[in-house]
Design goal:
By secondary structure, the protein is of the alpha+beta class. It has 8 helices and 8 strands. 42% of the residues lie in helices and 22% in strands. Strands 4-1-7-8 form a 4-stranded mixed β-sheet. A 4-stranded antiparallel β-sheet has the order 3-2-5-6. Helix 4 runs parallel beside helix 6.
């Protein structure tokens, strides 16, 4: 038995700032000591003078790695690291960019349309992936406008519903395929667990969808042992067992997701 989840229309924020969930995540690659250099620019004037905090989870706590101020639209961080980290750049009350702290020159660009991180291999891969997801999400959002146009053209509601349903299912299939492929292609670096967490963070409680079962069925031991992945998968199997009546004691209360999460 599998739990089938209905995916709601996803917003840009869904991909770029699952802060509550990411506060439980850290993934490390091979141990080494390298220098990272983060250079940022902002065209948002209200950010001038704002304090920025570079944060990553260490020893189960979200810690500030460094801080700086935005001065005339510019900011930067430089430091040493002994592993690759998924991190957040906390910007006052604004949406915090998600980034990978890795060796090299990392470029962060912030404007009123959002933000983008480039310059190093993993950050390039991450934001290329997020951009593709956003494009597909925007195509789904456009179906609402298409529905109105079809109604104005005099098409009957049943025909409209059938056509748009087919288009929506095709787009959902493309999204699922993109997510699955990206996670499996990056399952042994920090991007795989991060993308898995982004995928699952919208559910009200851990569920086993066909997509998640496919990912876990093809996962490496390293991916399965990631803290978030292992906890999520264990809890999802436990919940499924309770639903089947295989466990008789009282069900555990799952942690609530971020607002606007997926409905299983």
């Amino acid at each position: 038995m599998q739990v089938k989840a209905n995916r709601k229309t996803m917003s840009k924020n869904k991909f770029l700032y699952p802060v509550i969930v990411l506060a439980t995540l850290i993934s490390c690659a091979e141990q080494y000591s390298e220098t990272y250099n983060i250079q940022g620019s902002s065209s948002v004037s209200v950010l001038d003078g704002s304090k920025l905090y570079l944060k990553a989870l260490m020893n189960d706590e979200l810690k500030n790695i460094d801080s700086c101020e935005v001065v005339h639209g510019s900011f930067g961080f430089t430091g040493k690291m002994d592993s690759t980290h998924i991190a957040l750049l906390s910007i006052s009350d604004n949406v915090p960019p998600l980034l990978v702290i890795e060796k090299g020159d990392i470029l962060v660009k912030i404007d009123r349309m959002g933000h983008k991180v480039t310059g190093t291999p993993l950050n390039e891969q991450l934001y290329d992936y997020l951009d593709k997801l956003m494009q597909l999400d925007n195509q789904r959002a456009e179906l609402g406008h298409k529905q109105i146009q079809m109604m104005l053209e005099g098409m009957d509601e049943q025909t409209i519903a059938q056509r748009l349903s087919v288009e929506d299912q095709l787009l959902l299939g493309q999204i699922d395929s993109l997510e699955t492929r990206f996670i499996l292609d990056n399952q042994d670096n920090v991007l795989g667990p991060c993308a898995f967490q982004l995928l699952t963070s919208g559910y009200q409680y851990p569920v086993l969808t066909p997509q998640i079962e496919e990912i876990m069925g093809k996962a490496t031991d390293k991916f399965r042992k990631d803290h978030y992945v292992s906890v999520y998968y264990s809890k999802a199997k436990e919940i499924l067992a309770r639903m089947r009546g295989e466990i008789d004691d009282e069900p555990a209360v799952a942690a609530a997701p971020a607002e606007g999460g997926k409905q299983p």
